[in-house]
Amino acid sequence: MKLQINNLFKSYKDPVFKDFSISFPENAITCILGPSGCGKTTLLNIIGNIIPPDSGTLNGFRDKQLSYVFQDPRLLPWKTVRENIEFVLDKNLNAPERKKQAEQLIKQVELEGFSCYYPAQLSGGMRQRVSIARAFAVPSDIILMDEPLKGLDAVLKQNLIKWFLPIWKADRRTVIFVTHDVDEALLLGDKIVVLSKIPANILTQVTLDIPAGTRNPESEVFKNKKQELLTALENKESG
Amino acid sequence: MKHFITKKKTLTVLSIILMLVLWKVLAVVFDSPLTIPHPEATFLAVVKLFAEPGFLMVAGSTVVRGLTGFILSGLLGICIGILAGISPGFNTFITPMLVTIRSVPVISLILLALIWFRTGVVPIFIGFLTMFPFICTNVSDGIRSVDPGLVEMAHFYKVDKRRILTGVYIPAVMPFIISGASSAMGIGWRAIIIGEVLSQPVYGIGTRLQLAQTYLNVEAVIAWTLIAIALSFIFEKLIRWGESYLIKWQNGL
């Protein structure tokens, strides 16, 4: 079944979503691009069943298992890297099995040797990698990512994107990735949706045919797409 | 780091030596064992007290009273503290009571307790009442300090309730319980000994203090005081040891 949200309404003080509809391709990365406070996190929280919508229908989500990479890594400070990952694993798994799964993910996010470190002993980028490892450790169908690269410096961002893609390609789960960074969206997204300020509207949607990981930021295609997205974002500023 | 620790130790030792020197100077100046006994004579008195047949019974009785009061206030403090931490309404309701208990002079509590209870219970009751507010307030502060983001994360990943309690709430509250226990103990020992002085149970450091004072045995008064300080110190150390064991995740920071 297609992943769709139809006629979504959600208001806090002001309406955030007013008859908003969007669809997500499965087994692909959808980037949701928009300014701060445009309801991106709210959208993820509605999909993640953390907050209820006022009205609207979500199709295809309810029977799916979800993972969430929160904006802040949300690691338990009193648990080691491995224990943090084990914490969310199925409690029916036995201890050695859990350990094995956690270790495998730690290896994938290149944190080998840090299993027994506490979060406070890690850098911000490493903590976010643990959070991503935790999201992949769960056998989820959909991974929600809320600006996981926010606050990291440019080089670290590039590196995280570089190693994120191989992990993602291993089983190509559906990723819904929220960001306000155009380059990030262009490097990762198979589909990019640009949202307006609240009440959120879709300003434009872009699909990229070149597989993520092989895109060249210097290429014409990339530059054109970037211009298209920037124009959409700017129009929203003036409008 | 190592250098810092040795420096810290040196300063602690210096501070203790300074206190002893001051004491000695005062003893020499006053030159009256009935006012200020010499430190070495007092330490000899401490050693003699250790050798006394009833010593363990006396010190042990005070320790048992202290621990009874501590455990009672700990159990009730944790329960009430959790409720106050979870429910803002209950917190508002309980706060005036805690403030009242904390503001009542210890001596008033003792005088009332002397009327209400038999002598052995008075120090326990006093210890309980002085320690309870500390633990209760610390636990409720601890519960409120739990990061809602972590709870949300745990719920999102469908972690079961028991593991959310043991994996999120208890470790988050633990440092608060320990700091509450530490301040409670500090206040509690003193209150319990005052309680013993006034209620005069058969065995107890307070009873012996009072007895020594009656006979103007200043040496013994100070000797028992030193023992009380040592007890308080030992229990503080035990708590700190428990802390480093229970919240070892903070050590590397």
Give the full name of the CATH homologous superfamily of the largest domain in chain B. MetI-like
What is the CA-atom radius of gyration of chain A, in angstroms? 18 Å
Structural class of chain A: alpha/beta
Largest sheet of chain A: 6 strands, mixed
Straight-line N-to-C gap of chain A: 36 Å
Percentage of residues in helical conformation of chain B: over 70%
Radius of gyration of chain B, taken over Cα atoms and rounded to an integer in Å: 22 Å
* Strand arrangement in the largest pleated sheet of chain A: 5-6-7-3-8-9
Q: In whole angstroms, how far apart are the ends of chain B?
A: 13 Å
Q: What amount of the residues of chain A lies in strands? A: 15-25%
Main structural class of chain B: mainly alpha
Query: Largest chain-chain contact?
Result: A-B, 20 and 21 residues
Largest sheet of chain B: none
Strand content of the residues of chain B, in percent?
A: under 5%
Q: Runs of chain A with pLDDT <50, length 5+?
A: none
Average pLDDT, all residues of chain B: 90
Poorly predicted runs of chain B? none
Return the domain count of chain A: 2
